[in-house]
Amino acid sequence: METRSVLDPVVRYGPYAFAVALLTIGELAQRAGVNVETVRYYERRGLIDEPPRSPSGYRQYSGDDLWRLQFIGRAKLLGFTLREIAEIFGNDDRRSPANILEAARTKLVSVEGRQRDLVALHGRLERLVELCEGGDSGPCTALDIVS
Fold first, then answer.
1. DSSP category for residue 143
2. Nearest-CA neighbor of 33 among 76, 64, 69, 78?
3. Angle formed at CA 18 by CA 91 and CA 73, multiple of 5 degrees
4. Which residues pair with 53 in a beta bridge?
5. What share of the chain is helix, strand, coil (3-state, %, to 5)?
6. Fewer CB within 10 Å, N side or C side of the chain?
7. What is the pLDDT of residues 66-108, one digit of tens each?
């Protein structure tokens, strides 16, 4: 496999030469599309590591942290909980295809079960509406007999 180095057209000197790739918590949150408090919460939950700090005390996040936040966001859109996302990452902090496949299959079974429950609930609610609409002008007592 061939690797190429990409030259940066901007020459950087001094103590800030490598700080360009680092992000503040505000920049990280903005790029990931989350709130700053969400970043701090994920740190407390162990979903992202607490970053090193600059000499002035600012958190310094990397591109890996941004990727991780975006991964968490995509997983949440698929219905995964934060606990499930932590399990996907596993103990070695690397998401394995096996972990992701297992989590996706488990989530799919859960969604299918909820879907069946919602279809049944939908049918019961339709029946309730029919009973109440078909009654006289008095109060609907259908809830007394619908199960």
1. G
2. 69
3. 40
4. 59
5. 60, 5, 35
6. N
7. 999 999 999 999 999 999 999 888 766 566 788 889 999 999 9
